[in-house]
């Protein structure tokens, strides 16, 4: 008889790669395909950029000198909301990945029987 820790990977251990794959597909897919609009520092124009570029712009803006007022003064909150939505959609992608993994295990189990 083998010890419980030597019986092979637990169910939970076999599920996380499916979640991670779904999460990463959505996270990277959105980062490279979604267009965002960001105000240029002077406040006189808006530029279109990819989501990953938007994050880079907003991180630089947050790390730079802070201006009390201006057209971009509330952009930090908008970037946080965007990041939360991005992660939320990626979690949904992870759950879909779990569903695909469950379906694959179910089909393999049916074919083996």
What would your notes on this structure say?
With 113 residues, the chain is mainly α. It has one domain. 65% of the residues lie in helices and 9% in strands. The protein contains 3 helices and 2 strands; from the N terminus they run H-E-E-H-H. The protein has helices spanning 11-33, 51-63, 75-112, and strands at residues 35-39, 46-50. It has a two-stranded antiparallel ribbon. Helix 1 crosses helix 3. The chain is elongated and about 65 Å long. The protein starts with 10 loop residues before the first helix and ends with a helix. The mean pLDDT is 84.
Shape: elongated
Give the helix level as a range of percent: 55-70%
Total number of domains: 1
> Main beta sheet: strand number and arrangement?
2 strands, antiparallel
Number of strands: 2
Radius of gyration: 21 Å
Instruction: Give the mean pLDDT.
Output: 84
Low-confidence stretches are none
Strand content: 5-15%
Biggest sheet strand line-up: 1-2
Structural class: mainly alpha
